[in-house]
Amino acid sequence: DVKVTQSSRYLVKRTGEKVFLECVQDMDHENMFWYRQDPGLGLRLIYFSYDVKMKEKGDIPEGYSVSREKKERFSLILESASTNQTSMYLCASSLFLGGGMNTEAFFGQGTRLTVV
Amino acid sequence: QKEVEQDPGPLSVPEGAIVSLNCTYSNSAFQYFMWYRQYSRKGPELLMYTYSSGNKEDGRFTAQVDKSSKYISLFIRDSQPSDSATYLCAPTDRGSTLGRLYFGRGTQLTVWP
After folding, report:
1. Contact check, Cβ <8 Å, B98/A50
2. Under an 8 A CB cutoff, do B100 and A48 touch?
3. Percent share of chain B, pLDDT over 70
């Protein structure tokens, strides 16, 4: 079974702190994604990566950065946490099959971040 | 206009009811149409997917796509309390080599005994 593991289920941070959310997948997937999920807004893509050291902005990258130094690990960084970044953060990965095709995305359990 | 529109509900039905969940989309390039199910406090999991227009059946679940009207449906027959979850439609296009999915807001479904 594919496993996508997020380092924390619940996190409470103070405004202005630098926050690291870690995600590790164990199936050698090329693609990795960070989403945030908010009531009424659904899943919104923050950043994604299709290879080591490669990254692409999603729909809401402001206030976030990412790091992918190893294929299995994709980190989301909140440079200076703010209360409007309180949310559920979901990491996902998928396998590139070639010919423009990818497997479906496999999700981690999520990290519920509260910024106070 | 958002790429994918989905009524968030909530939808509450009795056990045994037929449930219809729907999405509309705007991007004509979408060719793969996925449905994810998300239980409370869990990450989404792929339920089923269809390619292009047509129907696909998997047990009590039927996914239907009408590309001419850009309309996606998921039907659940003989619904069970264990079906209580949030259902997210997620189309994607073949040209998306980065595996990008475009999620609807999700519909929260409760099936009561």
Report:
1. yes
2. yes
3. 94
Longest dimension (CA), chain B: 44
Task: Please state, in angstroms and as integers, the Cα–Cα distance from residue A9 to each residue in B25, B41, B42, following that order.
Answer: 32, 9, 10
Q: Which of B76, B86, B11 is nearest to A90 (CA)?
A: B86
Residue count of chain A: 116
Structure tokens at B85: 């979850």
* A42 vs B contacts (CB less than 8 Å): 6, 8, 88, 103-106
Summarize pLDDT for A3-16 with one digit per residue, the tens: 999 999 999 999 99
User: How many CB pairs below 8 A link A and B?
Assistant: 61
Can the peptide bond before residue B10 be classed as cis, meaning omega within 30 degrees of 0? yes
Structure-block tokens of residue A50: 């299709």
Is A86 in contact with A39 (CB distance < 8 Å)?
no
Q: Which residues of A touch B97 (CB under 8 A)?
A: 50, 96, 100, 102
Mean pLDDT across chain B, nearest whole number?
90
Bridge partners (DSSP) of residue B95 are: none
Q: CA of A20, closest CA in chain B: separation in Å?
A: 19
CA distance A112 to B112: 27
Cα A18 to Cα A13, A54, B49, B72: the distances in Å are 9, 22, 38, 41
Distance from CA of A111 to the nearest CA of B (A): 10
CA B4 – CA B75 distance, rounded (Å): 18
